[in-house]
Each structure stands twice: as C-alpha cells, then as structure tokens.
Amino acid sequence: MDILETHAYHRRQRRNKSCALFLSLLPFFLSAALYFYLWTPASPPSIMSAGVKSAPVLLLAAVVLSWNGGQSVLGVVGGLVFSAVGDCCLVWPELFLHGMGAFAVAHLLYSVSFLSSRYTKNSSSCWSRFLYLILFMVGGGYYTFLFPFLQKDPNSEVLTPAVGVYFVLITLMGLLAARTSNVATLLGSLSFMVSDAMLSLQVFKVVAPMQHGNTVVMVTYYLAQLLIAVGDMQAVEDTDEFSKWKRS
Q1: Distance (Å, rounded) from C-alpha 86 to C-alpha 100?
Q2: Which residues cross the membrane (predicted)?
C-alpha cells in the first residue's frame, strides 16, 4: 500500500469513526431536547424531572464507557456519573449543598483524567501561562464578588466555605484542561465555568430572576459535558493511533 492509498485509508477510517460517534451521541441529543421540551419554570420537583434532567449526562457516560472501556471509569465516566447525581439533587432546592458536593467530586475526577498520560501536555507555551493567570484571576475575582451575597444566606456558615472549595476545584479543572492540547476539553471546561457562573447569579440572588436563565445554564452545561466527553474519547483514540504507529 503506497502513501496515497494509506492516506485515503486513514481518511476513510476517520470518517467512519466520526459517523459512528455521531450515531452513538444521538440518544444524548434526543434526551437533551426532551428536557428542554418538558421543562417549565413552574415544574414542581419530582423523581421524573430529576430523571429527565440527568438522562443526557448518564447517556454520555455510557457512550464514553463503550468507546474507552474501563480506563475512563475513574476519570470522565465517573465525573459524568457524579454530575448526574448533582443534577438530581439540584432539582430539590434543599439538596443544593449535596448537589454541589457531587459536582465537586466530578470536577476532581475530570482533573485526574486531564492529568493522565493520554492527554498531551502543553504547559510551557506563553499562551498557556497567560490562560492559567486569567483563569486564576477570574475564579478568585468571581468568588470575591459573590462573597457578600453568600453572607446573606441563612446557612452562610456552611455555604460560604463550601462554595470556596467548589471554586477551587472547578478552577483547578479549568487550569488542567488548559494544560492539554485538546480543544474540546478546554472549551468544555470553560463552558462548565460559564454555566456555573450563570447558575450562581440566580441561586444566590445576585440578579433578578431571568426569563431564560435556566435555558442558558442548561445549554452551556450540556455543551460542557458533551465537549469534555468527546475530548476524552479523542484523547484515547489519539493514544491508540500513536501506539499503533510506534509498533509499525
């Protein structure tokens, strides 16, 4: 097989994998669409609403597990599962701290995954260092901005340090995503931070209730989880291709 034939073969392989990935993600897209179709601001908390809300993320976890196998269980797959737990908890306002704890574990698992050898590190460039500084300043600055509003909460003695720890973990996750050379992973992490920022503005009553506030939060949230999942599958695929190239 000459160089042109090899190039055409690899191009067909990539196209076939892209089609297979899109088909495997169809349940995620359909379940996310179902959530937006069924959700209304006046919807009372229920087991059904919790299931509909968490279904897209659980389906993503199943896709990543089927593509990557067990190597992502203590990484992105585990993070997606804990995110689904957090989704369920946040349906009931009184379980907010439990939900935030579940998402904190998810960020920790994502961070562990981004540190693994399958993610190419890109920590030495000036652009990466500049992005680290920006993320650190934005995370710390935003928590400082929220601090007075957290103090007004009746449960501020627990909530204020808990939110601080959460901010440390999500900022760490963003910093480690920036260390990778995976665009999907970085964009997913940034989208997660935007989603949480929008949610915190509403939960802690920084702004008046927004008409489409929940839509913005959930669109950026589902997009974040999708990009992080796709980034992890790409990282594993790139590692496998590199291993095959070394053996050949």
Answers
A1: 7
A2: 20-40, 99-117, 129-146, 158-176
Both tokens assigned to 176: 């480690």
Q: How many CA atoms lie within 13 A of 136 on its CB side?
A: 7
* Closest-CA residue to 84 (of 68, 101, 103, 65): 103
Query: Where in the chain are the domains?
Result: 3-247
On whether the CB atoms of residues 86 and 99 are closer than 8 A, the answer is yes
Backbone angles phi, psi at 71, to 5 degrees: -70, -15
CA 134/CA 117 separation, integer angstroms: 25
Query: What is the distance between the alpha carbons of residues 133 and 106, in angstroms, rounded to a whole number?
Result: 23
Task: Tell me if 114 sits within 8 A of 231, measured CB to CB.
Answer: no
Length of the chain measured in residues: 248
Name residue 180's beta-bridge partners.
121
For residue 235, CA distances in Å to 27, 170, 185, 229, 240 come to 22, 21, 9, 10, 9
User: According to the model, what pLDDT value does residue 123 have?
Assistant: 59
Give the Cα separation of 244 and 238 in Å (integer): 10
Q: What is the pLDDT of residues 44-86, one digit of tens each?
A: 899 999 999 999 999 999 999 999 888 888 899 999 999 999 9
Please name the amino acid found at residue 150: L
Q: Does residue 205 come out as left (phi exceeding 0), alpha (psi in the -120 to 50 range) or beta?
A: left
